[in-house]
């Protein structure tokens, strides 16, 4: 790897932080706008649901998102403020469908302590000013003039230092805010202030309310006629407006989000931290409140934002689970819920941990994440693959084969779909209404299983069954000729093309037949020594209707053989080895290269280069696609050939740059596939799976496909063990025991195929699982799961006790083999030189695995290293140990075997608060820290002085804008060692907002080229809202802000491919490289993820 | 409860009218919007709409404001002055300029 890094997003953020509803894209259109931290999405409300319009990257982390409408404007404007103190006002230009910037600016102050409870941004309902609370003790005002233009901002001193919420009140002649705050005795109060714009100061407001609920945290301003605010506490809900007051008790809960239902403010939806949804109803008589009532509606994902849309449909945005579109029903269902979930939007956030595994052993990584929090916790299996978009489906059990037929050879589209079952054959056809209905082909025999079907020359059809071959006229659909199997023999397998039929009967008889006009001619018949398992005569030579070769897979000697046609003279015999019979053979040609594919009954696939002129096989390769028998079938899409391998893990085989590639398909189990291109469903595939026949289109774009395994509890650590084919996780379950909310902590064992819980080990009370590792030790052949824990006691600032538990998987169960008490939290565990390296509070500790005299194994402390604040993240390579500290950035330790000691070699003296570290190569380490930055440091082993050698030099800095929880080596895409991209090593990271990203280390010339491209792209692709890319990517923490270096923004670079041709040309001219070359280079980069 | 639950606001009765929950208990929505990459020149606001915070700190501002208020009683009905009162407005403007 290198210091030249390229950072790109493989999966965009999905955690929803804000949402709002208004007429943004036109005065008549109602839009839902949602924020996913660094992106906003604009949706349109339509009769069919939410229609996504645009995904807008923002050069900042969004702190505030508000729609507002200045007087006289026909449609709403969007106010966005970012965490790095920039703001912008966006307007939709309907004519050009562009976002234009009405205003923007910088609202930072040089001095000021950033607020602890997050930034607050609010807009006066009468549009007189924008209020911002960004620093303790200051309230910033951006006034509007009477034309809706913004004026210079100013600060007002705010006495209250611990502010919990601020909202503008409705219907006040002077703009008035309500401030919910905590005093220095931890009591909570509400105060109001009028903003005197002329004097640039607060005037004591009309009323205040002292001594609120100790858990009061959220203010809801109520529109006229009532005015005032609702204060949401943990045990009470209070309404007050200075003159009237109403309070009700509630079931203890922490309200996270609210959404107003009625424009007059009489109903609000409240969402709490356990995902329960409530309706708050305020009844009033003129300007007096008469009642306050709360009703439980049902359960949703834990909401971070709630937006009432229209006609009882509500958007629930979530950071902890999938966001949802729900409908509020008038009647409750049998469970007493008024909530009906209409749609779910996948969210991977927060990704707390993940591992990269290659479960199918295809050389393609897939990521398994610990996603979501609390009850919305889940595992997500993320893998790259091809999608089949299902268009129609019908329930059909027991499909044994599928073929499509044209009603005449000259037809453009397929008409018939022949579906074979164990004792019958059904023929489906497209009718006038473009529906599939059952029909008949008179010449076909329907009361038996069909082995093969094909359109043949001279406008004929053939059907091969167990007893005969039937040749049928397309025009009359009547039988023209029939070839019968010799008596006592039945056809076992058959294949055909437009002119040739090859079939095998019991006893190893191989029969070759040619199709004439109305006539079947048996040309050759031989007997082989064993039974025949599979056949193929797919023409790959010059003549598209005639094959000069036949491929045959054999029982008993487990071989694949190539014969000349029509002579059936054996050319090649290749033994496959093993005991698993070949189930499907196929000759095919990709990009002018001919291959023989041979699939086995256990999910393995062989591929050979096939010499078409000599029939020789070479370059044998074997991959595993699944565990069940595979059926191979070719199909074409957009003039390219693909092979569909139907099995328990359906795969599409294709070729790119003359390399065979295997891509997962987003379907679970497919038994048969046939291309089926009808007028209604052009370029489609018919797919038989799990009791269903479906028709879908093939989406050739590789995408990430995500499978969810809901756990109902919060998974925090995950680890895979190849040997036992299991995953182990540490998780927390929130339960109600005797009406007390309690956390129970588990170590759980899961099957790596089914993801079912196999075994569970419950940790002690207050004992958190902090780290998990699969490893083995010197002098012991077993593979263990090691779990590091911490006793987190409410009265302790830092844990002072923990355990290391060593488990072995036996008969699918976790067996505790050894445990070792530690003097703190075991934040990290690593396998290290056949020993176990643990990070325990401020110490790095090495344990040996020793056999005691009584025959039991135990962990024995060997040596350690002190001197960290908290050693949270540890990675190792050889004898080197890289530690990511809570506060003290990255340090490098070395284990000295002879002395049995760990010593510090070098450290980064910057004060970075780390969130993850990884080793890129011997000398270069990457870290992610608290302020959403990435940085790389380098060891200077060749430096002249000790002082320099002891310093890790920062060699790259970059603002990612995401909080990284974990780095792992690996790749989401199939990497071929001999391709160009195969030489680029990558690491994957997972973040709180559900981003999966890739850091690729580039060769220097490659980096320089892309850097040049990036610098041109910045000039062409503008930052939305006028926000600057350079500022956004600059490394930034409390102490410093410096330009990004040695990291490239892959998201920006890859957006080159989305540009219009003239813009591409503009860039191409500026850097003197042709558009085609640029596209090729950028496309190469997109293949990294 | 019925009265509380009914009568949900409707802005366009057509919205969501044809949306049916998918039978497989709300399968994940697959639609993804296109990503926006602006290349036009209107991502920059009009020059007068690039907003900054006034440089003068709160204390100085208050001192000047107090000084201004002290001067005020010497003049008649400052508060009621409309901008068209030409001469006095211009002197006021000079006063407020530190």
Automatic annotation (TrEMBL), chain A:
Its main location: nucleus. GO terms for molecular function: nucleic acid binding. It is found in: Nucleus. Residues 389-698 form the RSE1/DDB1/CPSF1 second beta-propeller domain. Keywords: Nucleus. SUPFAM superfamilies: WD40 repeat-like (SSF50978). The lineage of its organism: Eukaryota, Viridiplantae, Streptophyta, Embryophyta, Tracheophyta. It comes from Apostasia shenzhenica. Residues 746-1058 form the RSE1/DDB1/CPSF1 C-terminal domain. One of its GO terms (cellular component) is nucleus. InterPro entries: Beta-prop_RSE1/DDB1/CPSF1_1st, Beta-prop_RSE1/DDB1/CPSF1_2nd, RSE1/DDB1/CFT1, RSE1/DDB1/CPSF1_C, WD40/YVTN_repeat-like_dom_sf, WD40_repeat_dom_sf. Residues 15-343 form the RSE1/DDB1/CPSF1 first beta-propeller domain. This is DNA damage-binding protein 1a. The keyword Translocase does not apply. Belongs to the DDB1 family. The keyword Cytoplasm does not apply. Pfam families: Beta-prop_RSE1_1st, Beta-prop_RSE1_2nd, CPSF_A.
From TrEMBL, chain B:
GO terms for cellular component: Cul4-RING E3 ubiquitin ligase complex. Residues 1-50, 69-98 are annotated as: Disordered. One of its GO terms (biological process) is positive regulation of proteasomal ubiquitin-dependent protein catabolic process. Signal peptide: none annotated. Residues 3-69 form the DET1- and DDB1-associated protein domain. Residues 31-42 have a biased composition (Polar residues). It comes from the Eukaryota. Pfam families: DDA1. Belongs to the DDA1 family. This is DET1- and DDB1-associated protein 1 domain-containing protein. The lineage of its organism: Eukaryota, Viridiplantae, Streptophyta, Embryophyta, Tracheophyta.
């Amino acid at each position: 790897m290198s210091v030249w890094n390229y950072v790109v997003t493989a999966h965009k953020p999905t955690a929803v932080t804000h949402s709002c509803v208004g007429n943004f894209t036109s005065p008549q259109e109602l839009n839902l706008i949602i924020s996913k931290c660094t992106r906003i999405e604009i949706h349109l409300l339509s009769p069919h649901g939410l229609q996504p319009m645009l995904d807008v990257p923002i050069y900042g982390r969004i702190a505030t998102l508000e729609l507002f409408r200045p007087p006289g404007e026909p449609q709403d404007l969007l106010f966005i403020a970012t965490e790095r103190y920039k703001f912008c006002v966006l307007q939709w230009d309907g004519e050009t469908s562009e976002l234009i910037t009405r205003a923007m600016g910088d609202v930072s102050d040089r001095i000021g302590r950033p607020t602890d409870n997050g930034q607050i941004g609010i807009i006066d309902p009468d549009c007189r000013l924008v209020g911002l609370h960004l620093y303790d003790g200051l309230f910033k005002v951006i006034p509007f003039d009477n034309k809706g233009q913004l004026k210079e901002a100013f600060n007002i001193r705010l006495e209250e230092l611990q502010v919990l919420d601020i909202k503008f009140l409705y219907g006040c002649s002077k703009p008035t805010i309500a401030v919910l705050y905590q005093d220095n005795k931890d009591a909570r109060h509400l105060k109001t202030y009028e903003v005197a714009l002329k004097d640039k100061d607060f005037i004591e407001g009309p009323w205040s309310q002292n001594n609120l609920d100790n858990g009061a945290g959220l203010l809801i301003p109520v529109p006229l006629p009532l005015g005032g605010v609702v204060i949401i506490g943990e045990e009470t809900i209070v309404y007050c407006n200075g003159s009237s007051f109403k309070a009700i008790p509630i079931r203890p809960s922490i309200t996270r989000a609210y959404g107003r239902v009625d424009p007059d403010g009489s109903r609000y939806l409240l969402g709490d931290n356990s995902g329960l949804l409530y309706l708050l109803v305020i009844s009033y008589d003129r300007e007096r409140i008469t009642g306050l009532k709360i009703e439980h509606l049902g359960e949703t994902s834990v909401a971070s934002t709630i937006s009432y849309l229209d006609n009882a449909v509500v958007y629930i945005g979530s950071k902890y689970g999938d966001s949802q579109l729900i409908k509020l029903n008038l009647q409750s269902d049998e469970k007493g819920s008024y909530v009906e979930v209409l749609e779910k939007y996948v969210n991977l956030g927060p990704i707390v941990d993940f591992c990269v595994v290659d479960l199918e052993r295809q050389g393609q990584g897939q990521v398994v994440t610990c996603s979501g929090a609390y009850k919305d916790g889940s595992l997500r299996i993320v893998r790259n693959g091809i999608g089949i978009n299902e268009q129609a489906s019908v329930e059909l059990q027991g499909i044994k084969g599928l073929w499509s037929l044209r009603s005449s050879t000259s037809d453009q589209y397929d008409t018939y779909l022949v579906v074979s079952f164990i004792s019958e054959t059904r023929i489906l056809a497209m009718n006038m209404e473009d529906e599939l209905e059952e029909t008949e082909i008179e010449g076909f025999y329907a009361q038996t299983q069909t082995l093969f079907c094909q359109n043949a020359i001279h406008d004929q059809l053939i059907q091969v069954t167990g007893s005969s071959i039937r040749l049928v006229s397309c025009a009359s659909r009547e039988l023209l000729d029939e070839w019968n199997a010799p008596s006592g023999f039945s056809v076992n397998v058959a294949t055909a093309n437009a002119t040739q039929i090859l079939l095998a009967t019991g006893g190893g008889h191989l029969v070759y037949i040619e199709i004439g006009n109305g006539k079947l001619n048996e040309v050759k018949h031989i007997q082989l020594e064993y039974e025949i398992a599979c056949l193929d005569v797919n023409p790959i030579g010059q003549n598209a209707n005639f094959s000069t070769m036949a491929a045959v897979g054999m029982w008993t000697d487990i071989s694949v053989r190539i014969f000349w046609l029509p002579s059936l003279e054996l050319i090649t015999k290749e033994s496959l080895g093993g005991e698993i019979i070949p189930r499907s053979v196929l000759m095919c040609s990709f990009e002018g290269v001919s291959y023989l594919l041979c699939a086995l009954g256990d999910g393995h696939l062989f591929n050979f280069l096939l010499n078409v002129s000599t029939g020789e096989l070479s370059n044998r390769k074997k991959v595993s696609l699944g565990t069940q028998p595979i059926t191979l079938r070719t199909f074409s899409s957009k003039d390219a050939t693909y092979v569909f391998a139907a099995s328990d893990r359906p795969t599409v085989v294709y070729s790119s740059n003359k390399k065979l590639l295997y891509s997962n398909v987003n379907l679970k189990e497919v038994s048969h596939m046939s291309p089926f291109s009808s007028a209604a469903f052009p370029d489609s595939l018919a797919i038989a799976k799990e009791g269903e026949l479906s028709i879908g289109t093939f989406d050739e774009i590789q995408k990430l496909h995500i499978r969810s395994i809901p756990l109902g509890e919060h998974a925090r650590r995950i680890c895979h063990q190849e040997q036992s084919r299991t995953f182990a996780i540490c998780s927390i379950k929130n339960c109600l025991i005797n009406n007390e909310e309690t956390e129970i902590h588990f170590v759980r064992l899961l099957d790596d195929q089914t993801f079912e819980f196999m075994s569970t080990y419950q940790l002690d009370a207050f004992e958190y699982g902090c780290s998990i590792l699969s490893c083995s030790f010197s002098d012991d052949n077993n593979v263990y799961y090691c779990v590091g824990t911490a006793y987190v006691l409410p009265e302790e600032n830092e844990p002072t006790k923990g355990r290391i538990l060593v488990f072995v998987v036996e008969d699918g169960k976790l067996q505790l083999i050894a445990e070792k008490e530690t003097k703190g939290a075991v934040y990290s565990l690593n396998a290290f030189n056949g020993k176990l390296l643990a990070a325990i509070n401020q110490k790095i500790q090495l344990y040996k695995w020793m056999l005691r005299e009584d025959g039991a194994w135990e962990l024995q402390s060997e040596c350690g290293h002190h001197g960290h604040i908290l050693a949270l993240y540890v990675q190792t390579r050889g004898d080197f140990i890289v530690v990511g500290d809570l506060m003290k950035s990255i340090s490098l330790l070395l284990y000295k075997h002879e002395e049995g000691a760990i010593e510090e070699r070098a450290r980064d003296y910057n004060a970075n608060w780390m969130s993850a570290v990884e080793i890129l190569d011997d000398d270069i380490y990457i870290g992610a820290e608290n302020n959403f930055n990435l940085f790389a440091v380098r060891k200077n082993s060749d430096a002249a002085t000790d002082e320099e050698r002891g310093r890790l030099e920062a060699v790259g800095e970059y603002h990612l804008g995401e909080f990284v929880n974990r780095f792992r080596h690996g790749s989401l895409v199939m990497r071929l060692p001999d391709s160009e991209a195969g030489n680029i090593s990558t690491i994957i990271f997972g973040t709180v907002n559900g981003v999966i990203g890739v850091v690729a280390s580039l060769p220097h010339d490659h980096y320089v080229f892309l850097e040049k491209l990036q610098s041109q792209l910045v000039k062409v692709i503008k930052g939305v809202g006028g926000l600057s890319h350079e500022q956004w990517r600059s490394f930034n923490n409390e102490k410093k802000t410096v330009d990004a270096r040695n990291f490239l923004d892959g998201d920006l670079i890859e957006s080159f491919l989305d540009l219009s041709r003239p813009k591409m040309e503009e860039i191409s001219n500026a850097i003197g490289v042709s558009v085609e070359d640029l596209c090729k280079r950028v496309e190469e980069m997109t293949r990294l993820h | 409860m019925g009265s509380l639950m009914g009568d949900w606001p409707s802005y366009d009765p057509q919205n969501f009218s044809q949306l049916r929950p998918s039978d497989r208990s709300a399968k994940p929505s697959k639609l993804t919007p296109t990503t926006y990459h602006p290349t036009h020149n209107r991502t920059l606001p009009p020059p007068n709409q690039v907003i900054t915070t006034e440089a003068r700190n709160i204390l100085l501002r208050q001192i000047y404001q107090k000084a201004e208020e002290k001067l005020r009683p010497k003049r008649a009905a400052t508060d009621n002055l409309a901008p068209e009162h030409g001469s006095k407005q211009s002197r006021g403007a000079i006063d407020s300029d530190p």
